[in-house]
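Structure tokens
________________
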Amino acid sequence: MDKLNSKQLEAVNAIEGPVLVIAGPGTGKTQLLSMRVANILKKTDADPENILCLTFTNKSATNMRDRLVSLIGVEARKVQVRTFHSFAAEIMNQYPDFFWNGAKLSTAPETTQLEIIQRILSDLPHDNPLASRFAGKFTAIPRIMQALKLTKETGLTPDKLQAIVEVNLAYIDKIEDQLIKILAPTLSLKRIPDLHTKIMSLPEQGIGSGLAPLLSLTSVIQESLEFAIDQDLGTDRTKAVSKWKTKWLQSVDSKKGMHNERNRNLWWLELVDVYQKYREQLHYRGYYDYSDMLVEVLAQLEQNPELLSEVQEKFRYVLIDEFQDSNAAQLRLAHLVANHESANGRPNIMAVGDDDQSIFGFNGAELNNMLFFDRNYKDVKKIVLDENYRSTQAILDTTSKIIDQAGDRLVKRDKSLSKKLIAKKEISENGEIRHISYPTREHQLSEVAREIKKRWAKNNNESIAVLARHHGSLQALSSILLNIGVPVSYELRSNILEHEAVKQAIIIAKIVGSVQNGDKELANELLCKALRHPMWGIPPEDLWKLALANYSKPDWMTYLLTSKNPHLKQIGKHFVWLAAQADKQPLASTIEYILGLRSGEQGSSPLKKYFSARRSIDNDYLQTLSALRILRELVTEFSRTTTPTLGDFLKYIQLNEDNRLGVVDESPFVSDEKAVELYTVHKAKGLEFDCVFIIDTIEENWQPKTGRYSCPSNLPLQPPLENDDDYARLLYVAATRAKHTLIATSYDFDHAGKELLPTPLIREAIGLNTKKDKTLATDPIIVLEESLRWPHLNRGKEKELIKAKLESFSINVTNLLNFLDVTQGGPEYFFERNVLRLPEAKTATLAYGSAVHASLDFGQKLVNSDSFSLVKLLDTFAQELRGENLPRDEHTKYLARGQKMFKKLFGANGFVLPKGSKSEQRIKDVKLSSAIIDGKLDRVDKIDDRLTIVDYKTGSPLSGFETSDQSKAIKAWKQKTQLIFYALIIKNDLRFGKPSHIEGEMVYVEASQSKDLVRTYIPTLEDVERLNQLVEAVWRKINDYDLPDVSKYTPDISGIAQFEEDLINNIL
């Protein structure tokens, strides 16, 4: 506590009631939140589990957990630190009876959302504004997708959205004539008091407080006028009030009215029907998304007082980090949890944030999150943290000039607040602040790269970052930097449909489709594209022969099939065989054949072998693996609730391409530990660097596109970056990352020779220190080559590449066993399967096991609701197995096997699902000393304070977990370790309390006799402690990227045991 400054200490000691902390950049807000939690535990009788900390990102949650552990020790693990979405998921998981519909849904890919929306729009009348077309394509789709996302983030169901918009339209009709009359006289300074009085006397619209933080139109009209009057004070002008008048009243065809506001509401009213149908179809197909989750949780909390009361009783204190970026749904969730009836308008809720740093979802002046506290709580304590521990005063003064250009800020709303930041950290470096303008973008990138190299070579301990609005310039700059020997760290955002391996897979799929359809011309075109690729191994001379033979009457497929060249003939047979299989097999199987994950009667596709042949771990290899994995996931999602054909999938890909919707892969690559870091501004939030370059600071990059979207004035449905203030905040966030050096760069002409200006945000704050002419030290040809070269990150150190992929890694029992099982290669097998995630076809056995587990989960829910029926369970099994997309013969085989098994399980074997047990319990982010573990428990039975963890197994049962039979020893070891691992999770997770007794059960659902159905194991304290030590040892190895060579261990259970002991004793 003695390390806190006076304002931080004031906030830490403000334990009771609503507290709003405005924390500017670098003012130590994370430390404050953690210290306040510790202080609550010290000064009150609250238990750690009574404290809820809500954060905006997983990274913030992890940082807070780590800081809490360092402050208060192991008790910190019980404090509920959650992102808003994980907290909503936790509520759904703990109260599944309220969320039946959400139990089995998963996140929908963007292309699935697009396809659903297109189908809905196709059924709308042609005169519906949402169904407008140009060149045969729906023009409103981008706006509709954005609107649906924002509506969900506001926490509005279709019914709520419709109700609010209809109430808005009725209110507009009610006050429109009155408003016209009030605003008829010419504006003047003398008229302002009378105008204010009349506007404040408008009839109240009547939107209830139950919709907080949403406002009534009355409040918006009145508050916006007061803000405009305040802005005009001392100017002897009515500029702001005139703008306010124009917003609310317009003249159309010589008729005055609230035309803009009415039209905005009418558009959103049309959206309601699309929203309703979209939601229904999304859920029907088995999809959900994060925003859906919040909407559903809010709806259930609002509709079920007993659920709300139970959740509220758990948490006596609520803390919110990055408050300014919380959307309306998140804000509503925190408000509902904190605002106990007994609080009398003064709940124990603290929010920490900074309106000046809101860059993810700021929704307009009248809806500032910071004003929410005053509107909804009594006697709010406000504290401004103004001591900065990051930057020099020169940096702070410059960034202040940037944010002062924002028109609407909290300090302009509440004149009692001051946010002038004071530098408190001693920084020995002599920094600089400059704005440099170059002739062109290419000159800029080339010269910035060389400036960075000078700084990096002079002092490579200095942290350097380059920030930009968009990825394009960062990709180009990364290429230049690597070419001149400067290492980079850059999270590339790429579209897998542009990846060469995926392009080739799609071409093969199109060839197969053309053969199916007998489209010879298309087949010729596609074969011409495909066969030139080196993966087919066709020598150049053979390609020439193929082309010449098809010169006059092209029929490439027939040529292949009749060729005397056995290699070409085999390729032709392979395509024809694939086309035949595509008519018989599920889509997922066909794609696996195309990718080379399955072999067929006519050989296999060379795609996987070619693109994953290199064993050196470079960015190309990792990108390929990632792209192919995502493509397979896309196919799985596409096939989830339908039985699509290959043709359907190709139309789906075409739909994606037509609407310019990429399938995004975000993969981090680091080429050296002392790398220069490249970020978009949004990704840089929360980071700090000695030296920051902000590139492309031209006006058109830092200003809103006019007239894109509009929304009802009382609904926070405006996307980010829709007004000038948004860009001032964005640039402020970028500039405040700098500790001592800030260099902004712009350029004077675009590629067409059009003159460009620097953004006023930079001109006003820094001016123009240096203007470079076209006579540069850099050879113009080099500049051109660098700008045209496709950015490509070079081969980097393997350790650093993998280190970037492990940031969000956690240990589960599967990857732990993969690491330990020396019979399969141990750490190397773990690396391929769980880190690189090499593509691998899902076996029929695994698919069958998944369907069985899902069916037993459904059966448990039926039992809990007193509606169990074997018929219902068998129907669910058939549906789940169908969703696994097995080849038809395997599907038939496993369907019969499962039906027979379930009838025997619940019949002759007398298996009973106990009422009240919880199934499919997903437990995440369980923190040990340093390791993070997670798991999914098939079933948990609880009687008083005794817990039984149940795991279902298909296949033959074990006679016990200790066996001398070497053929079963590893299976027994895995299953025993699994039960101990689950006990370790239970002991370190809060949701099950502190059970006095934990035992594990393996239920072998395919046991031939009832006596073999269940095997029980009670993990001892020694078992759990030993596994805890083993997990921590494995965690250290993984995070240090130290994968031991296990060749010295015998490939049997003895070798596994010795490997475990060596890990625990740290002798590897």
Observations:
- The two ends are 41 Å apart (CA to CA).
